[in-house]
Amino acid sequence: MFGTCHRPDFFASGREGGRRGRSGWSRRFAQGWGDEQRTPRGDIKYILLALIAEQPRHGYQLIKELEARQAGFYRPSPGSVYPTLQLLEEGGYLTSEQLEGKRIYTITDSGRQLLAERDNTVDPIDRGERQQQLIGLKDAITELSGAVMQVARSGNLERMGRVREILNRVKREIYNILAEE
Description:
The protein is mostly helical. The protein is built from 8 helices and 2 strands; from the N terminus they run αααααββααα. Helix 3 crosses helix 6 and helix 4 packs across helix 5.
């Protein structure tokens, strides 16, 4: 049911097999934001543990919090979150209780120890400079999209042509920036 998740070394290996992957469009879109993979394979368990260590939460709260902390550029799928929570609970790293129809997860001492033993010193849910840059980029894209849509709705073919030329120039300049690396 969960692929390779039931292997005894699941937590040591960092391999959750329940997630089959994203659609072609969303995979290409996600790969375009940031230089590194958004959530390296196996990190979701540490990210969830870190969030639950802050305060007990249910699955949907975890998904929404991760989306908020990544400025909307990443939202884990329920298919990656809920099976991982189940496995963390089965491993003794979390406990859960039913409150008002929702399963609320709390980290255990074993979960805190697993989190503390993690080699990676990079905070997987960092709210630093990178997030602010992503938010700024997202805002700029949103504003640009709104302006382009206004021109498109105007129906003025000459303006639409000029905007298309500007967008093509901007696209070339962005590719030039990418080529500098």
